[in-house]
Write a structure and sequence with these properties.
3 domains; Enolase-like, domain 1; four-stranded antiparallel beta sheet; alpha+beta; globular; Uridine Diphospho-n-acetylenolpyruvylglucosamine Reductase, domain 3; Uridine Diphospho-n-acetylenolpyruvylglucosamine Reductase, domain 2; 12 helices; about 270 residues
């Protein structure tokens, strides 16, 4: 690592103030990406602002018809939360299969979505559940938050404070994980919200995206066979499918259909 100044903040206002006074600052949540990047000298912030002293950003609670999760809630806390399991069990199940126990006990919801890794699990839940990302400045709808590979709508210094999730009628997440890292080679989050279906795909492309043809099929009939009847072709989506040593674009396209079908089937078994 290069030399840097470490600051620990106890409030959002303090963190933003420190950020604004530095020349090249970075926020630190769980550190799952930031610290390895710094160790490899791919990032060299002059000030690292530790957010973990801001206890107000760790709450998980039901507010009216929304499930509200603080940005610093860890994956393990989301997975174990009785509030999450009662209202959106699919979200708890998703958090439980992120990485390994060490990652789940350090990584945070806010850090994960701010990083916008193309193979991360949370982006599928954010888009699939049509969540709203709240920052110190504004509220950002899910469909406007993820822009591209490691790119979001966040402006410089803007800090995620919490995420509010509408409670769906039903929802499920299924992923085909990389056996070494646990990242999603393809992950699909399916949800039914106020009579409309949403299907969000992670891992397949440079950023999370919605499979609108599958959504339309599920709107007609919310059963696994509806999804199975939709041909998934990389050319039909307005995204470039990932292609690497783990899976070709064609194989990832195939997995989108398989994971979507499994997600709907898992909902049917619960019901």
């Amino acid at each position: 690592m290069y030399e840097f100044t470490y600051r620990k903040s106890e409030s959002v206002d303090e963190a933003v103030l420190i950020f604004g006074a530095a020349s090249d600052p970075k926020y630190l949540a769980g550190g799952m990406t930031m610290l390895p990047t710094m160790k490899q000298r791919l990032a060299s912030p002059d000030v690292l602002i530790d957010l973990n002293g801001i206890v107000t950003l760790k709450a998980i609670e039901k507010q009216n018809d929304k499930l509200v999760i603080g940005a610093l809630a860890t994956h393990a806390q989301v997975a174990a939360s009785s509030v999450v399991r009662e209202n959106i069990p699919a979200l708890a199940n998703l958090a439980a299969v992120i990485g390994d126990p060490q990652v789940r006990n350090r990584g945070t919801l806010g850090g994960s979505i701010a990083n916008a890794d193309p193979a991360a699990d949370y982006p599928a839940a954010i888009v699939g559940l049509n969540a709203t990302i709240h920052t110190n400045q504004r509220a950002i709808p899910a469909d406007e938050f993820f822009i591209d590979l490691f790119e979001t709508a966040l402006e410089d210094g803007e800090l995620i404070t919490q995420v509010s999730f509408p409670v769906p009628e039903k929802a499920a997440y299924q992923k085909f994980p990389n056996p070494a890292s646990g990242y999603a080679i393809v992950g699909v989050f399916v949800a039914r919200l106020e009579g409309s279906s949403r299907v969000a795909v992670t891992g397949a492309a440079g950023s999370v995206f919605r499979a609108e043809s599958m959504e339309a099929a599920l709107d007609d009939n919310f059963v696994a066979s509806s999804v199975a009847g939709v041909e998934v072709n990389p050319d039909e989506f307005d995204v470039d499918f990932n292609e690497d040593i783990h899976a070709s674009a064609e194989y990832r396209a195939h997995l989108v259909g398989v994971m979507a079908r499994r997600a709907v089937e898992s909902i049917s078994r619960v019901i």
